Amino acid sequence: MHIAFFGSSLVSAYWNGAATYYRGLLEALARRGHEVHFYEPDAYDRQNHRDIEDPPWAAVHVYEANEAAAAAMLKDASRADLIVKASGVGVLDEFLEAGILSLRRPGCVLAYWDVDAPATLERLQSHPSDLFAPLVPHYDIVFTYGGGPKVVAGYAQLGALICHPIYNAVDPRTHFPVAALPEFKSDLCLLANRLPDREARVEEFFFSVARRLPHQSFRLGGNGWHDLPMPKNVASMGHVYSSEHNVFNASARAVLNVHRDSMVRFGYSPATRLFEAAGAAACLVTDAWEGIESFFEPGREVLVAANGDEVGEHLARLTPAEARAMGRRARRRALSEHTYDQRALEVEEALGVRSHRRLSVRTIVPLPSPPQKTRALTFAILGLSLRSSWGNGHATTYRALAKGLSERGHRVVFYERNVPWYDAHVDGARTSAELRLYDRPEELVQRWGDEISTADVVVMGSYVPDGAALIDHFNGCVEGVFAFYDIDTPVTLRAIGRGQCPYLRSDQVPWFDLYLSFSGGDVLDTLETRYGAKRPRALYCAVDPDHCRPVDVEDTWDLSYMGTFSADRQPGLHELLIVPATQLADRAFMVAGPQYPEMLRWPRNVSRVEHVAPPSHAAFYCASRFTLNLTRQAMRDFGFSPSVRLFEAAACGVPLISDTWRGLDVIFEPGKEIFLARNARDVIELLHDLPDADRLCVGAAARAKVLASHTAAARAAELLGYVSECQPSRMRGQARRRARG
Fold it and tell me: Full-prediction pTM beyond 0.70?
C-alpha cells in the first residue's frame, strides 16, 4: 500500500509532540511492507531542530509554507492508495483538508488523522461555522490517537463514516531502559511543552509539589518554560531531543505525566510520553483520567494522582526498589499490548488490508504486493503437538502463531514427538508450518539437529517429552535466538520448584535469550528475580479469526463448556454449570472434552461430547446462548493467565461467563465484554434474567476486543518485536560457527 501522509513533521519533535507517534506508527507500517511518503512544511524552525535524518523507511518531502508548494505536494501524493491529512500541521491546514478531498479516485482511501481529537471536537462545538465540520463526512475514515467512546461519538455526530482510535504506543527499538546519568537525575521529572490548556495542571501536579517538597529534586523538559519563575529545586532543561528521552526518563525515581485539559475531559487519551517512559522501564505517575486502567493497571503498573497532594504522597512513599519494580511491570505491559507493531495491525484491520494485498473502506480494490523489506526468518519450534488438539491447548496456539508468522513471510518448522494418543486424534492437517515427526529424541538430533541449530529462532515449548534433555543438547549449539515458550507457566514453576519438571530444570531458565509466558503479571517478576530469566515476556494465547467467527446455527444450549477434565477445575464446573443445570431443569447445557471419569453422573439436561475438533469450534460456541470459561487453580493463583478457549469464544461473538481471577479485567472489561460469576446464583440470574439485547451486546464487544488485540497476527507481531530485542545474542552463534570453521 502506498501511503501519502501530510503532517506537522516526521524529522523534528521541536514544538511537535506528534513526531514520536508518527515515527513509531509509520515505521511499523513500513516494516509490514507499505510504502510511506511524509509531507511536512518548512515551518516553526523545525528543520533547524531536526532530531533525526530522513529515515530509510520513508520518503520525506519538505515544502515551503505556501499554497503553491502545498498544491505541488498534493499533486505528488495523488497516486497514493491511502492519503492522510493529519490535524495540526500548523500551516495551510484548511487548504490541505479541502485539497486532499479533491484527490478522490477509485481505489484511493482518504483519511483524516486527528492527533488532538478532544481539542478538535471542542473547537467545532464552539464554532459551528468552522470550515472543517462540513468536510468530515467526505473522508472515508477518521483515525484518532485517543479519545475513546466520547471521541467516536463526537465524530459520529459530525457525520464521520468511520472513526477508529489508534492509540499511542511504544517502539522498543527506540525506547528502552538505559543507565541513569548524574546530570539527569531527579526524584520526579516531567517532559511537556508549555501550552495554555495544560499550564494550570502542570502548576498543580508539578510545581506545587516541588514547593511542598523542597528537599527533593525535580527536572522539567520541554519548550516555553524559560520565562516562568520556578522553585529552586526545579531544574529546567528546555527542549529535550528525542535521542535523550530514554536517559531523561531512566534517570528519575519517577516520571510524571500531565495531560491537557481537553484530554482529561474526554478520557482515553494516553499521551506519547506515557508509553515512552514505560518503554524505558521508568516508574510512572500520571494525573487521573477516565480509561487509564485500559492501558496500565493503577497501583501496580502506574501510580495515579487526582491532585498535587496525591503526587506528593506517592513520592513520599515510593522507594527506589518499588519504583524499579513498577517500571519493569509497566514496560512488560507496554511490550505485551502497546507497541506500534500492534497499532499498525489495527490500522490494517480498520482499512480492510489483508496480507498487504487488499484495501477496502468504500470499495475493495486489488493492490500490488509490495516487496518484502525485512529479512525472512526461520523459526524452529519444538512443541507438544501441532497436529492434534486432543486433550491439550497447545496445538491451536502453535497453529495460530505459525499462521501469523507465515503471513509475514517467515518460515516455521515444527518438531513433534510421535505419540499414539495424538496419532489417533489428528485434527490439524492444514497448517502454515512444516511438520517433522520423530519417535525418539536421538532421532530428532540425528536427523534435524543441524537444521534446528542454524535456525534464526529456536523455540522450546513446555511439556515437550524429554524436553530438559533436548535443552541440554541445543543450548550448546543454537546459533540464533534461543527461546522457551511456556504454555503452562504456573504449573511449570511449581514443578521446577519441587525438582519434578521433566521438560525444564530451574538451572536451564537463564540459558534462554527469551522466556515467553502464557501468563503475565507477577509471574514475570518471579521468572526474572528468582530463576534468572533474561527477558521474561508475556505471549498470551491467541485466536485465528478466519476459523473462529460467528456462524449461523440454531441455539441448542443455554450454557456450554469446552475443556479437558482437570481435578482442580472440576469444583468450578460443578458450581457454575452442574448446580445451575440441576436448578434449571427446563434449560439445556453441554460439556465437551476428554478424560472425564466414567463415574461422574450428569444431570439429564447436560449433554456430553468427548472431543470437538478445531474446525467445529465456531459452530459449537455459536450454538450456545452463553459459554463458560474455567481456569485451573494454578493459573488462578498466579493470575493473568487467559485460556485459548476464552479468545476463541469471544471471537465467535458468544457471551462469556467466567470464573474470577486477577488480571482478567485487563483482558476483558467485566460487565461490558465478559460476565463474571462467583457462584451458581450469578449464573442462574444471567441465564434467567438477562435480556437478549444486553447479552448480544456483550458478545459483540468481546469480539471487537479480540480482533483488535488477541489475534494470531497480533501475537506474531509481538513475538517478532521480542525477537528483535535479542538480536545482539546472535553474535554468540556467529562466533560458534567461526570456531567450528
Answer: no
